[in-house]
């Protein structure tokens, strides 16, 4: 969906609350980042002729390294430090491009199945902002956030459980 379609979905959830686009941009971008942490696109970058023990900048829009062809650490400065040198493949979860006020036709980069979650997140933020201590409106905010969280969990499961998955517990003495 593009920004305009997401805005229309949001308006249906909030009875066309008349929220300004600047607030929607913030809320939509918050939602995208939250979703991307678990179900964002995984991208590969090759560090050609990398040297062992040298700090390299993380790839553009890197949220989290998912896999690497060699052992690595992350330095206190946030740099990737590889245990060995050579051509190194780094797979990382990439943050989606942020929506901007100047481009209402910009499309969300997340998987299509995840797009409908963004207006739910924004509706939660809207009702939370509107509540100002009112329990009924605060309840609306909680309701929409629960719909968002349940939908996110279900869709991530549907998409194959991207990300690190717990496959068993180990109990040690």
Description of the structure:
The chain has 173 residues and is of the alpha+beta class. The chain has helices spanning 3-13, 21-39, 117-131, 135-158; strands spanning 42-50, 55-56, 62-68, 72-74, 80-82, 86-94. The strands form 2 sheets. A 3-stranded antiparallel beta sheet has the order 1-6-3. Helix 2 (21-39) crosses helix 3 (117-131). It starts with a helix and ends in a 15-residue tail after the last helix. Mean pLDDT is 88; it is low at 162-166.
What value does the average pLDDT take?
88
The helix/strand series, from N terminus to C terminus, equals HHEEEEEEHH
Evaluate the radius of gyration.
20 Å
Q: What coarse outline follows from CA principal-axis ratios?
A: elongated
User: Based on DSSP secondary structure assignment, what is the total number of beta strands?
Assistant: 6
How would you sum up the major sheet?
A: 3 strands, antiparallel
Category from helices, strands and their pairing? alpha+beta
Question: How far is it from the N-terminal to the C-terminal residue, by CA?
Answer: 51 Å
| Unreliable stretches | 162-166
Percentage of residues in strands: 15-25%
**Helical coverage, percent range:** 25-40%
Count of helical stretches: 4
Brief overview:
The protein is of the alpha+beta class and 173 residues long.
Name a few traits of the molecule.
3-stranded antiparallel beta sheet; alpha+beta; single chain; 173 residues; 6 strands
What is this structure's SSE topology?
Layout: H1 3-13, H2 21-39, E1 42-50, E2 55-56, E3 62-68, E4 72-74, E5 80-82, E6 86-94, H3 117-131, H4 135-158
Antiparallel strand pairs: 1-6, 2-5, 3-6, 4-5
Helix pairs in contact: 1-3, 2-3, 3-4
